[in-house]
Amino acid sequence: MNLFTQIVVTIGRVNPDGVQMLGTGFLISNDGKIVTTKHVVGIDNARLVMLAPHIADINQYQDTADNRCHPIAISVIDIDPLKDLCIVKADIRFEGVLPTLGSFDEINVGEKIGIFGFPHCVEGRRVLTFQETEIGAKILLESQGIKSKHAVINTQARPGQSGSLIFSPRINKIVGVLLGAYASQSGVIIAGINPNELNQTTQCISAEYINEML
In 68-106, which positions are buried (b, 16+ CB within 10 angstroms) versus exposed (e)? Predict the structure, then answer.
C-alpha cells in the first residue's frame, strides 16, 4: 500500500495566501502525467500545482498541524468535459512501477475496492486516506448523447475526494476515478448542503477512458 503514498497527490492552485487545495489526482505515467477530474481543475488553468508526497508509509501518523508543502507546477494537457476527466503533467520522473489501468468490466457488483484520496483537503486538511467499500451497481450515464460506464460505490464522498483512485486488489489494477456524489438535487439547500447528499452513494467513472486521452 505504500506505493499509493507516492502516486496519489493533492491538486492545488497557488494564490497570494499560499496554496489552495482543490482535490485529488494520481500518477499514471513515469514521466509525470496525472489524472484528476475536470471539475477539480475548473475553468482557470493558471497557477496549478501538485503537492509532492508528504509521507512514505501509509501507517505513519500524519500531522494535521504541519502545513509545509512542496508545490510542483502542472499544466493541463487534455480534458474530456463529457466524462469529467482531466490529465495534467508535472515536470517529474517517477522511477517505480505504476499499477495498470483497468475497467469496471473486469470487476463485479459486490466486489471490494479501495479508494485512495484526500477527503476534506479543500478545507485545508491534507490527509491521504484509504477507504474500502463495495461496488454497488454498474450504470451508464449519458452526457450530450454519449453514454459512459460508471459504478456506484457504497460510500459517501467528501469534498476533496474528487479525482481519487479506485483500486481493485483482486486484479491489481486501477479500475476507476471518483467523480462525486450520486445524488439528485433536492431544490433546497440548507447551510450550503443539498439534503439528498447526506446519505448518498458515490459515482466513479471507469478508468478505461483514461487510455483514450493518452
Answer: ebebeebeeeebbebbbbbbbbbebebeeeebebbbbee
Percent of the chain past pLDDT 70, that is, above it, reads: 91
Q: What is the pLDDT of residues 92-135, one digit of tens each?
A: 999 999 999 999 999 999 999 999 999 999 999 999 999 999 99
Which fold would CATH assign to domain 100-213?
Thrombin, subunit H (2.40.10)
Torsion sign, CA atoms 100, 79, 81, 24: positive
pTM: 0.91
Q: Residue ranges per domain, the chain?
A: 3-90, 100-213
Cα 101-156-154 angle, rounded to 5 deg? 65
